[in-house]
Amino acid sequence: MLKLAIAASAALCVAACATPSRFEWGGYENALYVYYKKPDQREGYRKALVDAIERGEKSQRLAPGLYAELGFLSLEDGNNAQAIAQFQKEMTAFPESREFLGSVVARISGGSASASPPAALPVAAQAAQ
Predict the structure, then answer these.
(1) Prediction pTM value
(2) In this structure, are residues 77 and 99 in contact, taking their beta carbons and an 8 Å threshold?
């Protein structure tokens, strides 16, 4: 009985030490796996993305790339306006994505990749100028 109590205590301590995920992924990872294996499950994948985004927004722990992933789905569907809106949300939430997604938006909009908005300079780089 003592061994069982010690084992249970050890398991509880280990479980308590596990750090929670920094981001809210929802069912995105499983849905992505299913979608890659069965491309006809596209709508299930889209729903999982939307659910993960909603959960992430609600908990203030939105995972990076989810807006962009939804934007690429919209782009594949031919809905350029919705794709651009999702890319803009991604660039606002995660400024480090601006360099890449800005060029994607520029190409969709008919501009060249060089027409993308400049990436924000880090504070240290701004001070050096």
Answers:
(1) 0.71
(2) no
